Fold this sequence. Notes:
494 residues, Dipeptide-binding Protein, domain 1, 6-stranded mixed β-sheet, Dipeptide-binding Protein, domain 3
Amino acid sequence: MIKSGDLRVFDPIFTTALITAEHGYAIYDTLFALDSKLTPQPQMVRKWSVSDDKKTYTFELRDGLGWHDGTPVTAADCVASIRRWGQVAPGGKLVLARAKDISKKDDKTFTIELKEPLGLLIDVLANLAYPFLFIMREKDASRPATEQVTANIGSGPFKFNEALAKPGASFTYDRNEKYVPRSELPDGFAGGKIVNVDRVIWENIANPQTAFAALRAGEVDFFEYPSADLYSAIESDPNLELQVLDKMGWVHWIRLNCLQKPFDNVKARQAMLHLIDQEAFSRIFSSNPKYTQNIISLFGNDTLYSNDENTGWYKKGGDPEKAKQLFKEANYSGEKVVILQPTNIVNYSNAVQFLAGALRKIGINAELAPSDWGGIVARRGNKGPVESGGWSIFISGVPDLTLSDPIGAPWLSADGDFFGWPKNDEYEALRAKWADTATVAERQALARKMQGLWWGFVGDVRLAQSVSPIARRKTLSGLIGMPGALPMWNMQKT
């Protein structure tokens, strides 16, 4: 499999990188998982119950759960994992804030006792916003979330093969022969995680033409993100197939460093809203319009909470003169704007170059900092100035589905904790009400208020929404199509 980039960070709680989340799905397991209808289902949990006052949840683990080192999974592992995840995930922070106690009752049973009811608890535990709640060994989960876990020992359907790891080139996963899957049929991320292959190798091939040549020659079976200019060649090859696995697609955006000049000034951030030509960026992500659309709502295009509040900044083709005026009002004086460029993700690399050109046209000192995606994942946590290895802008994306979940999605927060570090207390006060808002209509009204504030302080800048077909050899089948990540169980090769 040719993945979307190089795996540099292995701890799926430490980072929100997609490739690390997919590594997590391979070697770890989860308490609950979403099925194909996006309904939470028990995974490691055998059964659970809630007290009459809705404050105490009791969870019992199923039989057969074991770590790759041969030791059994216990309730203490789950408690430690929830507490560590709760240090960084917005949904986890909510759980810890509401929790009176999270404790082990016996080796297979633990409870979450709340100070007040939280009807969304199971949804939060099963959420599809990174970081996912992966269960780790107690001794690993006892580390602060700011320190990486490097052991790569989980209880999931695959084992990470340390001996065959070639950082920068490839990583190998072997079938966990001792893994006991659930008895249900696979259904989304839920059900039985049946592994039908002995080994999966993730190849890191940065050049898309080289990657396509390897796929066509049968040297690899799967190419995660072929560039749009390769679609016709893939479709014309009788041995290959394009397949859209995530039909809701991804929203692409830019994150601005709100801590450093020039984007510590809200006027400079507002300038970026006006600068962006979404139609042009849509063509970068795909030459075929059926794969892309514009995006102006904080809550995505296809969720219950999509709305048009405070979207007057949108103009077809953008408004460079307005952007130039706002940079002037921000007292921009030639500071270097460093844009991180992922050279091994072609669409993002092209988008970054286009963005740099648009900034230079209005007099902004834009400079590219090229590296592979793994390098960007490692660098984007630097909060310092560009002279100290920091950054001004990077492009990323998230599943459209997650934009309906301001409790679980860190990118919908403005508490100063997520990359770019936007902070707005009024917005956060509204977001805090989401968990206790009872009806869809009430949440829709709340969403409009939140969006009105978001586009005022500019927590991010949207570029386009797109679906991205994967390319595979027809001998590879059984791929699970879900938003957010690609699991490796269920697939088979003939």
